[in-house]
C-alpha cells in the first residue's frame, strides 16, 4: 500500500499528503502482523520499495531524492509504529524503529554544516503505554497513541522544515562566499588592469614628453642651422649687392677723392674708400682729425717658441693674429733694405690671455694671398683690418672677422674657436639684369642672342623649376629640373633669392645661380616672371629691371601656340596669366625699361643699347684698381673710418701714376706741375664703415 503511493516532488506537499492520507490508510488497512519480525521485514521491503520508487521518480537532484527518501522512511516508520501500537500492547519491540525517527539522519550533503537542534522526540522516550484492561480504555489509549503520533509527525515536520531552512541558509552562506570570492577576484583583476593601464599611461606620457623634448631639441638645431644658413645667404646677397653701384671720382681743390665701393668675401663690411691726394706741401688736410693716428694696437715681439718675430692684435682680451712671417719680412726688409723678398703667407693663431695659451682657430673663408707685408689694425671688437702692402688696391683690403655675428654663429655651430677672412673687394660689377614678361613674348629668344654675341660679358642665371623638361632642354643649362619636395625644402633653407609658383609649377633663382655668373666676372641675366621680378625688386639685390611686351595680345597667343611646347590647357593658363602680367608690367615702380618685342632684331638692338652701352657696363673696370698701398704707410681707425696715411714723394708719385690721370680727373693746373707732383704727395685713404660693420 505504501509502495503504491504516488510520489510527490514537493516536500511540503508530501508532508501534507502524509497528514491527511496516511492515517486514513492506517485505519482501513492496518495489516495484522503476526510476527513482529516478519512485520518488520515486510516494512523494510516497503521502505526499500518506496525508497526505490521515490528515487526513480526524483526530479533530478540526487541530494533531494536522498532527502525525500529519508523523509519517506522516517514517515513510514512513524505510521507503522502508530498502526502496530494496538497489536503490540506493551511490547516495545518496535521501539528501536520509532527511536530511529528521532535520530539524526547522517547528513551526506557536503553543504550540511549546521547541526539540527530540533530533533524529533524519540518515540522510544514516550511514556510506556499501560495495559488497557477494558475496551473503553483501549479506545482512549488508542486515542492517546494517535495524538502522540500526530504530535510526533508535527514535530517531524517542523524538524524537516528547520532542516530545509538550515540547508538553504548553508547554501546561502556558500553562495555568498562564492559571490564574494568572485567579486574579490574580479575587483583584484580590475585593480591589476588599472595598475597596468596606469603604468602604460605613465610610460606613454614619458615617451611623449621625451619625444616632445627630442623634437624641440631637433627643431632648435634645425633652426640654428637654418639661421646660420640664412646668415650666410644674406651675407652672399649683400655681397652681390655691394658689387653694385658706380665708381665715382670726386674732384676737389686740394685733394682728389676716389669713391670705391668695396665688398667683402665672407663678412658683412661695406666700405667706401676715399683717397685724398694732397699735392701741395703747404696745403692743409681737409680735416685735421683725420690725421690723428689713434691707438694702433700693434705689438711686435720675439716669440721664443717659433723663434721669430710676431705681431699681435689685442681684441677683447684675446690676442689675435700672429704675423710671424710679416715681421720676418719687415726684419729682412729693414736689414737688407730690399723689397725683393719672397711672398710670405699669413697665419692666424690666438693667444688667450685668460688661459695663457695659444689656440689654433678654425679659419673660414679664403685667406689672402701671400704678400710682402701687412698692416694690422683692429677695426672694432669684432674684426681686424689687414692691409696688404705693395699690392694692387683690389687685393689690399682684408678683414679677419674675430667676433662678428657670422663668426659668433659659426662658433656656436662648430663649438670651436673660429675666425673668418673677408675680402674687401675694390670696385664693383655691373648690376644683374632681370628680364621679365609674359610667356611667349620672346624673352628667351632675346637672351639667347645676347649670350651668343657676348659670351664673356653676360651669363645666364640658371633657374630651378619643378616643370618637366621640354625636348632639347638640358638639365643644368636651361634649368635645374628639380623635384618639388626638394625645391620646397631648399626654399625653406634660404637657398633662393626668389621663387614663385608660375603656371602651376615652382620656379626659383638660387643665390648660387647668380653667384656662379658674377664669380665668373660676367653680368648676370635673369629670365623670371613678374612675381619673381617683384621679389627681386624688394630684395637687397640691386638690378636692372626690363619688361618685354608683345605688340598685341593676339601676337602673343600666336607665338605661344607656334612654339608648340604647351598643351591647349597650358596655353590657356599662360594666356590668362599673361593678361595680369601685362598690367603689372606697366608699373613704373617695378620696371626700369619696357621693350616692345615686335620686330625681333629691332627689339634686340634696343636691349643691347640698354645693356652693352649703359654706364654700368662701360665703367665696369674701375681705373683705381691699379692703385697700390705703399709699403710705408700708417693705418688707423678713427670715427668709424679707416685712415691710411702715406707721405713720401716717391710713394706719392707711385700712387699718382697708378691712379691714372684721365680717370682721376685731377685739376689740370696741378697735374701739369710735375715738380709739385713729385715733390710731395700724401695719400690718405679714408674708409668709412657702414652700419653693417655694426659699430658699438
Ligand atoms: N619678335 C618676334 N617675332 C616673332 N616671333 C618671335 C619673336 N620673338 C620670339 N618669337 C617666337 O615666339 C616664341 C616664344 O618665344 P620665347 O620662347 O623666347 O618666349 P619666352 O618669353 O621666353 O616664353 P616663356 O616665358 O614661356 O619661356 C618662339 O617660337 C620664338 O621663336
Ligand atoms: N619667378 C621665376 N620665374 C621664372 C624663373 N625661371 C623662369 N621663370 C618664368 O617662368 C615662366 C615659364 O617658363 P617656361 O620655361 O616654363 O616657359 C616664364 O615666364 C619664365 O620667365 C625663376 O627662376 N623664377
Automatic annotation (TrEMBL):
<dbReference type="InterPro" id="IPR008144">
    <property type="entry name" value="Guanylate_kin-like_dom"/>
</dbReference>
<dbReference type="InterPro" id="IPR011043">
    <property type="entry name" value="Gal_Oxase/kelch_b-propeller"/>
</dbReference>
<keyword id="KW-0547">Nucleotide-binding</keyword>
<feature type="compositionally biased region" description="Basic and acidic residues">
    <location>
        <begin position="1"/>
        <end position="11"/>
    </location>
</feature>
<dbReference type="GO" id="GO:0005524">
    <property type="term" value="F:ATP binding"/>
</dbReference>
<comment type="similarity">
    <text>Belongs to the guanylate kinase family.</text>
</comment>
<dbReference type="GO" id="GO:0004385">
    <property type="term" value="F:GMP kinase activity"/>
</dbReference>
<feature type="region of interest" description="Disordered">
    <location>
        <begin position="1"/>
        <end position="58"/>
    </location>
</feature>
<feature type="coiled-coil region">
    <location>
        <begin position="183"/>
        <end position="225"/>
    </location>
</feature>
<dbReference type="InterPro" id="IPR017665">
    <property type="entry name" value="Guanylate_kinase"/>
</dbReference>
<comment type="similarity">
    <text>Belongs to the remorin family.</text>
</comment>
<protein>
    <recommendedName>
        <fullName>guanylate kinase</fullName>
        <ecNumber>2.7.4.8</ecNumber>
    </recommendedName>
</protein>
<feature type="domain" description="Guanylate kinase-like">
    <location>
        <begin position="430"/>
        <end position="612"/>
    </location>
</feature>
<keyword id="KW-0067">ATP-binding</keyword>
<dbReference type="InterPro" id="IPR027417">
    <property type="entry name" value="P-loop_NTPase"/>
</dbReference>
<dbReference type="InterPro" id="IPR005516">
    <property type="entry name" value="Remorin_C"/>
</dbReference>
<dbReference type="Pfam" id="PF00625">
    <property type="entry name" value="Guanylate_kin"/>
</dbReference>
<keyword id="KW-0175">Coiled coil</keyword>
<dbReference type="InterPro" id="IPR008145">
    <property type="entry name" value="GK/Ca_channel_bsu"/>
</dbReference>
<keyword id="KW-0808">Transferase</keyword>
<dbReference type="GO" id="GO:0005829">
    <property type="term" value="C:cytosol"/>
</dbReference>
<dbReference type="InterPro" id="IPR020590">
    <property type="entry name" value="Guanylate_kinase_CS"/>
</dbReference>
<dbReference type="Pfam" id="PF03763">
    <property type="entry name" value="Remorin_C"/>
</dbReference>
<keyword id="KW-0418">Kinase</keyword>
Amino acid at each position: 500500500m505504501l509502495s503504491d503511493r504516488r510520489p510527490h516532488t514537493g516536500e511540503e506537499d508530501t508532508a501534507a499528503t502524509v497528514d491527511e492520507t496516511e492515517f486514513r490508510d492506517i485505519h482501513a488497512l492496518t495489516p495484522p502482523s503476526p510476527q513482529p519480525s516478519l512485520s518488520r521485514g515486510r516494512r523494510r521491503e516497503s521502505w526499500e520499495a518506496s525508497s526505490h520508487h521515490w528515487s526513480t521518480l526524483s526530479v533530478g537532484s540526487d541530494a533531494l531524492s536522498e532527502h525525500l527518501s529519508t523523509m519517506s522512511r522516517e514517515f513510514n516508520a512513524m505510521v507503522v509504529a502508530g498502526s502496530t501500537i494496538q497489536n503490540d500492547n506493551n511490547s516495545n519491540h518496535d521501539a528501536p524503529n520509532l527511536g530511529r525517527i528521532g535520530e539524526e539522519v547522517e547528513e551526506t550533503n557536503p553543504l550540511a554544516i549546521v547541526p539540527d537542534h530540533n530533533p524529533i522526540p524519540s518515540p522510544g522516550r514516550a511514556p510506556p503505554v499501560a495495559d488497557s484492561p477494558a475496551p473503553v480504555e483501549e479506545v482512549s489509549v488508542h486515542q492517546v497513541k494517535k495524538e502522540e503520533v500526530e504530535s510526533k509527525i508535527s514535530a517531524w515536520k517542523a524538524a524537516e522544515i528547520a532542516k530545509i531552512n538550515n540547508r538553504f541558509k548553508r547554501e546561502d552562506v556558500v553562495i555568498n562566499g562564492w559571490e564574494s570570492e568572485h567579486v574579490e577576484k574580479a575587483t583584484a583583476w580590475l585593480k591589476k588592469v588599472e595598475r597596468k593601464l596606469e603604468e602604460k599611461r605613465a610610460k606613454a606620457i614619458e615617451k611623449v614628453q621625451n619625444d616632445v623634448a627630442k623634437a624641440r631639441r631637433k627643431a632648435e638645431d634645425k633652426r640654428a642651422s637654418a639661421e646660420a644658413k640664412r646668415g650666410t645667404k644674406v651675407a652672399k646677397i649683400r655681397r652681390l649687392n655691394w658689387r653694385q653701384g658706380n665708381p665715382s671720382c670726386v674732384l676737389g681743390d686740394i685733394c682728389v677723392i676716389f669713391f670705391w665701393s668695396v665688398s667683402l668675401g665672407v663678412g658683412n663690411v661695406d666700405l667706401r674708400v676715399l683717397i685724398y691726394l694732397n699735392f701741395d706741401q703747404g696745403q692743409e688736410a681737409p680735416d685735421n682729425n683725420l690725421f690723428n693716428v689713434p691707438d694702433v694696437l700693434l705689438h711686435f715681439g720675439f716669440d721664443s717658441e717659433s723663434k721669430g718675430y710676431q705681431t699681435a692684435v689685442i681684441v677683447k682680451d684675446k690676442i689675435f693674429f700672429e704675423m710671424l712671417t710679416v715681421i720676418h719680412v719687415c726684419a729682412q726688409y729693414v736689414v737688407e733694405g730690399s723689397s725683393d723678398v719672397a711672398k710670405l703667407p699669413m697665419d692666424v693663431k690666438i693667444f688667450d690671455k685668460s688661459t695663457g695659451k695659444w689656440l689654433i682657430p678654425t679659419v673660414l673663408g679664403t685667406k689672402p694671398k701671400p704678400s710682402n707685408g701687412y698692416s694690422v689694425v683692429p677695426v672694432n671688437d669684432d674684426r681686424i683690418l689687414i692691409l696688404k702692402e705693395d699690392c694692387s688696391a683690389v687685393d689690399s683690403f682684408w678683414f679677419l672677422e674675430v667676433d662678428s655675428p657670422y663668426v659668433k654663429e659659426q662658433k656656436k655651430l662648430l663649438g670651436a674657436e673660429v675666425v673668418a677672412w673677408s675680402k674687401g673687394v675694390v670696385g664693383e660689377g655691373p648690376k644683374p639684369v632681370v628680364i621679365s614678361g609674359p610667356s611667349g613674348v620672346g624673352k628667351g629668344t632675346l637672351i639667347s642672342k645676347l649670350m651668343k654675341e657676348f659670351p664673356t660679358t653676360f651669363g645666364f642665371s640658371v633657374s630651378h623649376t619643378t616643370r618637366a623638361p621640354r625636348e632639347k632642354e638640358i638639365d643644368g643649362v636651361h634649368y635645374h629640373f628639380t623635384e618639388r619636395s626638394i625645391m620646397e625644402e631648399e626654399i625653406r633653407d634660404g637657398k633662393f633669392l626668389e621663387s614663385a609658383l608660375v603656371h602651376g609649377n615652382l620656379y626659383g633663382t638660387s643665390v648660387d645661380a647668380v653667384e656662379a655668373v658674377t664669380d665668373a666676372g660676367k653680368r648676370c641675366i635673369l629670365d623670371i616672371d613678374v612675381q619673381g621680378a617683384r621679389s627681386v625688386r624688394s630684395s637687397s639685390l640691386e638690378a636692372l629691371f626690363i619688361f618685354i611686351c608683345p605688340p598685341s595680345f593676339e601676337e602673343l597667343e600666336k607665338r605661344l601656340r607656334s612654339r608648340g611646347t604647351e598643351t591647349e590647357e597650358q596655353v590657356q593658363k599662360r594666356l590668362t596669366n599673361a593678361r595680369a602680367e601685362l598690367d603689372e608690367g606697366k608699373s613704373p615702380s617695378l620696371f626700369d625699361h619696357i621693350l616692345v618685342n615686335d620686330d625681333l632684331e629691332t627689339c634686340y638692338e634696343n636691349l643691347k643699347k640698354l645693356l652693352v652701352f649703359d654706364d654700368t657696363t662701360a665703367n665696369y673696370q674701375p681705373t683705381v684698381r691699379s692703385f697700390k698701398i705703399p709699403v710705408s704707410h700708417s693705418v688707423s681707425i678713427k670715427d668709424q673710418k679707416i685712415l691710411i696715411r702715406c707721405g713720401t714723394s716717391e710713394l706719392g708719385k707711385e700712387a699718382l701714376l697708378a691712379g691714372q690721370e684721365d680717370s682721376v680727373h685731377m685739376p689740370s693746373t696741378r697735374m701739369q706741375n710735375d715738380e709739385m707732383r713729385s715733390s710731395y704727395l700724401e695719400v690718405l685713404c679714408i674708409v668709412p664703415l657702414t652700419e653693417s660693420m655694426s659699430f658699438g
